[in-house]
Design brief:
Strand content: 15-25%
Structural class: alpha/beta
Strand order of the largest sheet: 3-2-1-4-7
Distance between the termini: 15 Å
Oligomer: single chain
Low-confidence stretches: none
Amino acid sequence: AGVAGRTLLGIDVGGSDIKLALSIDGKLASLKEYDWFPAKFTRISSLTDPIEALVKLMCWKAVALGADGLPDPVLDAALAPAFTKDADDTALNRALAAASPLLSARKAEFRLDGIGLSFPDVVVKDKIVGGEVYKTRGIRDNAALDYEAEFRTLTDLDLRLKRYVKEAGVVAVVNDGPMAAFTALVEGSLADPDSIEDGIFAHTLGTELGTGWVTEEGLIPDIPLEVYNFIIDLGSFPERAFACDDPRSVKNFNTDLPGTLQKYTSQSGAFRLALKAFPTERKDLMVEILEKGFVVAAGPGMRIPTEPKDLRKPFLEYLMALPDRDGQPTVNRLFTEIGEFLAVATLECNQILNPAARPRILFGRMVKNQTCFRLMQEGARSIDPTLNLVQAADDIAMSPLMKELKADPRHTVAQFAQAVGAVYYAASRGLISF
C-alpha cells in the first residue's frame, strides 16, 4: 500500500557502500551501489555530501525515466556514467554536471514523494543522534572540530534531504537494524501472516553487526540496539594486545574494549578468524592473502588497505569463496565460529530484551553465499540447537518490488533487500504509525 502512483527512494547506508533503490508507480525503476569508507572522513560534510549527491542523482534518474510523464533519453544518457559499477565521486559529479543544464531546460522542478533512509547509527524520530559509531571515528578524532557542533549537521540530515521531496512528502530515517526487521516483516506478512504474530528480530551482517526488532504489537522500539557493543568475552591474549585497527585485534573500534561482538561477527570477525588460523594451519592461504595485498604491514601491526583502493569487500569476497573452493576444516571454521558467536548474541538478546520472536532473520553480504550461511547455521546450532537462522535472500521475496529485485540479473536480494525495504518504509509513513 502507498507505493503505486508515487515515486519513492530507498537508501541503505553501510560502512563499505551505499545502496539505493528507486520505485516509480509501484515498479522497481533503478538500483545504484556506491562504495565509500566513511571511517576515514574528518568532516561531517564528507558523509552528507555524497548522500545528497546520490539522492539528487536518483531524483534526476526518476525524471529521465519519465516519473513526471515525460521520459528523457538524453538526460538518461548524461546520467549513465554514474551508474557504472566502479563509478567514483569524479564520475558521479561529472554526470550531475552534464545533466544539470538538461534538467534546467525542462523548467520544471521534480520532487520525490518520499525517501526512506536506513542509517547505521542511533536514530530516534528520524533524527541521527548517536555519533559513537565506527563510521564517524575520523571526525571524532579531528581535534580541530567541536565534535558535538559538527555532529548536529548530521542529526538534521532529514531536513537536508527534505528539499528533494514534495511538501507533503516524508523523509523517514531509521537505524539499519530496525530497517532489516521492517523489511522482513513486510515480506513475511505476504508469505505467511502467522509468521509475524510474534514480531520480527533481525541482524545485518556487513561491516558491523546491526540489530533490529519489531515487537509483537507491530512497533519499532525507540531504543538503541547497539548489540555489537555487548561484551561476550574478556578478550584473549595476544589478540587484545593488538591495536583496534589491526584486523587480528578483539578490541572495539569505538570503545577500545576487548571482547565485544563487533570483532566476533560480520566482516571484522571473518578477517580476525582468518588471520588467527591461517598463519599456522593454512600457510598456503596466508601466502595467498599477502600476495593479493589484502593484508599489509603497518609498523609493528597489520592493516587492510583502504587506499588507493578499499580492499575490505574484495578480501571478504575472497574469504566467502573459500568454502566452495577449498572446504577444508580450517576454512569452514571461519563461518561456523561466526555462527557460534551469533548464537551467543541471540542468547544475550533473549536475556536482556526477551523478544517474543525467536527466529533470527539475517541480512547482508555475509549471508548471500549459501555455503557460508549453512556453516553459520551449523555453528549456531552447536550452541543452541533450537536457534533458527533465516537467510534474507531470494526466498524472502514476496512483495512486488522484492520480486522484481529477485529477477534482476545484476543485483541480488541479499545485497539490496534493505534498500527496497526502505522504499516500503517511506510508503508506510502516513499509513501506519511506527
